[in-house]
Structure formats: structure tokens, C-alpha cells
Specification:
Butyryl-CoA Dehydrogenase, subunit A, domain 2; disordered N terminus; seven-stranded mixed beta sheet; three-stranded antiparallel beta sheet; about 575 residues; 14 helices; globular; Butyryl-CoA Dehydrogenase, subunit A, domain 3; alpha+beta
Amino acid sequence: MAGEDQRVGVEAGEEPPFDGVDDGREVAPRERGVPGSPGEQRVPREEERRPFDREAHRAGGVPGGGDGPDSEAPHLDDRVVLEQLVVGREHRRVLRGDRDPDAGLSHRGHRLDVVPVAMGLDDLTHPEPPADVEEVVVLVGGVDEERVARAPAAHHVDVVVHGSDHRAMHFARGVFPDPFERRRHPHRFAHVVDHEPVNFAFSEEQEELRKSVRRFLQDKSPETEVRRLMATTEGYDPAVWRQMAEQLGLQSLAIPEDCGGAGFTFVELVVVLEEMGAALLCAPFFSSVVLAANALLASGDDEAQKRWLPGIAGGDTIATLALVEDDGRWDLSSVTLAARPDASGAWLLDGDKSFVLDGSVAGLVLVAAQAPDGLSLFAVDASEGDPPGMQRAPLLTMDQTRKQARLEFSATPASPVGEVGGATAGLETTLQLAAIALAAEQVGGAQRCLDSAVEYAKSRIQFGRPIGSFQAIKHKCADMLLEVESARSAAYYGAWAAAERSDELPVVSSLAKSYCSEAYFHAAAENIQIHGGIGFTWEHDAHLYFKRAKSSELLFGDPTYHRELLAQRIGI
């Protein structure tokens, strides 16, 4: 805090005794005080103490506490008082009037013993604020619930003001509200959360993006159009693909501006993917924007990014990532396709890749291969036709709404992307981002299954009443709702981790993929059950979601595989 003085809490004539001798229990000055902004309340010098500072050293130790029975707060015994003043010394039972200092604390003039909190809360004059109010403050020094001095927080902290109906409770670091302040200002109730906040609420612009994409997909990807594209080899409509790029700019959404994109974050991409999953969009969006674009960005190859990303952003280039081989394993150690240099130094690929998303129509194929120096990423340019030695074969898969292919390479020319032998980290990041993106798709599909099941349960009459009134159907719908909402939370947290490139990304990606896969498959299966006999027919769209759910469950690894990854990543 600005104006922090080393004499706070030092008796008259006493020198600040921090000499480094026998101070094993003391804390370094920087650990107990963090300079704040100039606008924050400063700690007054001894000679500048105001009346309320002297009042703070009464028996109660809390300014304005009074001497009546209300001064005691037994339920807050041994806790730190949340106060806007900085008290120079901390007592073990400051609310009970115990003047004996706690031997476990070091009371030195150059450190603070109380957490000063919440600048500006006095501006809340209305007795009932319309919503929770958050402010960012600096944690200057701290004493936890065990009265042990601790270092300041590494991040800013939230101060949240609640309504008067909340009770005092322990949050994060054992910091409690001042009951005397609550008596004077009933609407004030603060707690401190010592970490960076994660906001799961979408902004107004993001919600508008969601509405725009939803309207577009309702018009361009109805069930009839999905069924039509399922029967084609390409699996997408080039006109709609062009509209997505030119009218909505969806392909460019999460690509940096210096590479021809719009420069938004992974959160916006997740918003779009959730709506695409709900509509079962048939288009090479996932392969181009999620897989190929992120593989290029993670490679660190500026030249390759400048060459390929503008085409992906503009919708001119359909791209994909070829990683898995015939064994169907998604771990990078399973890659056996070989890359070798020829006599001139050009690179050639030999081997096969399976389950390549949109591999039949991609003009750019990024191939993971084993080079002499290790796992590498290579680009195969097929924009002008298939290069020598490359053959494509469409695969017959359960989910006909997402086309897959098998690619064969025999001395196929390719150009390296990034450092040869150094692709492991980039490909791992790409797979983690892909898992979160797929989880968002799964949430959209699961929500659509839930909506369909509930709507049918409300309108289908049996035994003179809607089937939704029967307890068995209620239980199914309630379980679906619980799982869908839990999956949504996991996917959204993954979106945040991806957008921030958080250290939690590897853990969160496997968590989201495993849970969302099972939630989507269960919702799709229960949707069929609630619909009864009609749900099993080809004419009804329930089976389309069921097949997409099963295919997505296996894509990038099934839930068991990701739970194993999760266990490894958290050290179990």
C-alpha cells in the first residue's frame, strides 16, 4: 500500500528490531507488505494517527466496535477482522478484547499484520445492491485462520459484496467480515478469494455471435440438408462454406490478425463449435480451423503460418491434420510413417494415415511423421491436385455427417513445418485444443438431444397424460440435464484454459473430453429411449445424434484413454 511506514505498530522509543539474528519466525519485509496503487489508503505515521486509529487500540481493538454485548462475536474467535483500516498490531482475539499479542506473530513496524481490504465499499449506499459487486485490491499482508503469518498473494484478489442475507463464512484464506461494520452498513459483506478469477459468463458480443451462428445454421444446416450432404462424397456444400467465410468470418475467427484472421480467442471458437455441434453441421470446419490451423500456430514456423493460414482464414484452403495410423491410437508414440530426405535434400513421406477428417477434400494435409531426428510435422500441398505418390480412400464410418479418409504416401514430396524432430510439443498442444473443441461440439449436441427428449415427453400422450409426467421419464430427463450442465461447465473451463494457454490445459482437456464424451453419448441414447419406437427409425433424427456421439467419443481417444492421461498428468 502507498505510504506504508516502518513505524506502524512500534511502541514509542522502540527501534524496528529486524537485525537478522534469531529471527527464524520472522518474515522478510517484502513478504508481509506489497506496495499498492497511489489511490489506495495509506498507513499513517504514529504522529499522524487520526481518532479512529486510537480507537482501534481500545480493548476491542476494532474501531467503532462499542463496548456493549454486540462487541463480542464468539463465532469469529481467532479470526482476522476484515476492515478498511490498517491496524498496526494483531491480537489473538481482537474481537473479544484480549490485549495479549499472539506469540506466533511477529509484530514489527515495517510489516503489517492485518489484511486491508476493499477500497471504495463505502460508496455502496443502497441497502440492497442490484448484484454482486467485484473489486480488485492488493493483498498487503496476511494472517490465516491458524494465526500464522503468510506471504502476500501472488495475484490480485476479488472482493465480493453480497446481500445482507448472507452469513459470515470462511472463504479462501480465513478472512472474515467485520460484524461491527455489518451493523452500521447491513448491506456490506465482503470476502477475499486469493486467485485469478475465471469468468464463465459470455460477453454481449459473444452472445450475439452465438445468435448469429444459430440463425445461420438453422437456415443452412436443417435436418434435410444434413441428410443430403451425408450421401455425398465431399460431405459439405461449397456455397455454404464460402458464406461462412465471407459473411460470418467463422474460419478466420481464432486466427491471428497478422495471418489474415480476426484475432479472437478460443472462447469465441468454442461458442461457434457448440452451435455447430447442435446443428450437426456438415463442413470441413473442425479439420481446417481446429486441427490444421492450431497445428500451424503451435509449430512456431512463421513462414509456414504466413503461407497457409490466410487461405484457411479466407475459406480458400481446406486443410486437415493426418496423425493416426491404422492402429487407431492417438498417442504420438504410435506414429510410424517415415520421412526421409532425398539426394537433393527434399523430404519424402512413406506410409499410411487413417481416420483423417475431411482427408478426401483437403488441399493441405499436415502429416505427422518420424524423421531421422524424431517426430516432425510436414505439409503436403494438394491444392493443385494430389502430388506424386499420394492416394486417398474415403472410409465408411458410423457417423456419416463427418467424413473421414485413409491416405497413402509413397515417396510423396513434403515440406517441413517447424523444426525437424521438434514437433512433439506442438502436436500435444494441438491435440489438447482439439479435445476441448470437440467437447464444445459434444455439449451442443447433448443439449439438442435433451431439448428434443423434453419436448417429446411434454407432447406425447399415453394413458391420458403426457409421458413426461411419469416418474421414470422425469428421472431420465433430470439425469440428462445434470450431465449436460456439468459437461458445459467442463467445456467452458477448457475454453478459458485454451484461450489463456493456462498450465492447466493438459489436465482440463482430458477432463473435458472424457466427461463430455460420456454425457453426449448418454443423452443421445436416452433421447432414443424417451422417443420409443419412433426414435429407432431412419426418418427420425435421433439416430444421427447417436452416431455423432459415438464417433466423437472415440475421436482423439475414448474416455478411458483420457482418464488415464488425466491420472498421469496430475501424478496419480
